[in-house]
Design a protein that fits this description.
alpha/beta, Rossmann fold, 2 domains, 14 helices, 377 residues
């Protein structure tokens, strides 16, 4: 087991983390990354991808060299913050320095932090490229660039910034792409910047993540809020609830709060501080319900989250996968992904389930309990 060969500070962090054995994506990619090769890693959400690249890369940091050696890029503030927290946890006993670099945050403060010459930068592409162009972030010593949730970075919104960063970095650098979903087209595009990348794919069956139950309740659109309110009142568990847009989400948040439910919201129109506060309170268990748009499907890692509820059917199978991946994460006891659907929406949900090859089960919400609907023979 490669864990036995890790540096002492990582072995100590491994003990504290409570992991028993490495997960398949970690086991498969560790030697390849350590060797310095380019890698495309595809593995289900919650299967330990972040640690899969962090362990070998933290080992490679030269603590004597006070300049940026590792750059990790992610599409959302939430995901950047989560990755940075993990780096801090795993470098507690090591003289390795890191910092976050996100748009919307005070740029002068970030420039001040850069003067301390952190060895690891975790950031969003726009702000990272901005500071490279200003010559505040020097990338001449970069050894590795990681694209976390790469499919979200290789979209028109981020593509130009991303390519600008990659072109600024040394040619002899390692490039790693990780995500739960990377299409052939995206992989081909990434290949333009990679040198004979090794593709590592881990299936749901192999991933080592707990079982997730995929359920749905058929209900009228106007009744969805009543089901949600009743679930919040009757279930002991926290609920992460997904919406397609912030308009419907805000209306429901106001109604639930008026009814005395401990509820918070997370969507792209909120200021950074409010988003951080919502995640922090939900992670600590202070909020019963967190209503979110798909911005939260990436990078939100709440320990032992048992329920993901979908008030709106996601627009495509990838969005469903990333929403579902907030529960049933490695190290948990599994979870439930529950969709509240109308008679019209059930068709869309069935199409997604067919593409993802998952089995949906119909449930009823009766007297404060989820009851499996009996099928008539």
């Amino acid at each position: 087991m490669f864990v036995d060969t890790l540096q002492p500070f990582l072995q100590q962090a491994w003990k504290v983390s409570g992991y028993s054995t490495p997960l398949p994506i970690q086991e498969k990619t560790y030697p390849i990354i350590k060797e310095g090769k380019d890698v495309i890693g595809v593995s289900p959400t919650g299967s330990g991808k972040t640690l899969a690249y962090l362990l070998p890369l933290l080992e490679k940091i030269d603590v004597e060299q006070k300049q940026a050696q590792l750059l990790i890029l992610a599409s959302s503030h939430e995901l950047v913050a989560q990755i940075h927290r993990l780096i801090q946890e795993w470098t507690t006993d090591a003289p390795i320095t890191s910092m976050m670099m996100i748009g919307g945050a005070n740029v002068k403060r970030q420039i001040e932090k850069l003067k301390k010459k952190p060895q690891i930068i975790v950031g969003t592409p726009g702000r990272v490229l901005e500071l490279i162009k200003q010559k505040k972030l020097k990338v001449h010593a970069l050894q590795t660039i990681v694209l976390d949730e790469a499919d979200q970075l290789l979209v028109p919104e981020h593509r130009n910034n991303l390519f600008g960063i990659i072109k600024s970095a040394p040619k002899e650098r390692q490039l790693l792409l990780f995500s739960a979903t990377i299409s052939e087209g995206l992989a081909e595009e990434a290949n333009r910047f990679m040198v004979s990348p090794e593709v590592v794919r881990v299936t749901n069956e192999e991933s080592g993540t707990p079982d997730v139950s995929y359920q749905f309740i058929v209900t009228e659109e106007r009744e969805k809020i009543e089901v949600l309110r009743s679930m919040a009142r009757n279930l002991d568990e926290q609920l992460l609830v997904f919406f397609r847009d912030s308009g419907n989400l805000t209306v429901m948040e106001e109604k639930l709060a008026y009814q005395g439910i401990a509820v918070d919201a997370l969507h792209g129109d909120l200021p950074k501080q409010k988003r951080e506060k919502a995640i922090r309170q939900f992670s600590k268990g202070e909020t019963k319900l967190l209503l979110a748009t798909d911005v939260a499907a990436r990078g939100l890692d709440v320990k032992d989250l048992a329920y993901v509820v979908q008030v709106d059917v996601p627009k495509d199978p990838d969005h469903y996968l990333h929403r579902a991946g907030r529960t049933g994460r490695a190290g948990s006891d599994g979870g439930v992904v529950l969709s509240l659907v109308t008679d019209v929406e059930i068709r869309q949900l069935n199409q997604i389930a067919k593409k993802l090859e998952i089995t949906l089960e119909e449930f009823l919400w009766r007297k404060g309990k989820l009851i499996k609907k009996k099928t008539s023979n």
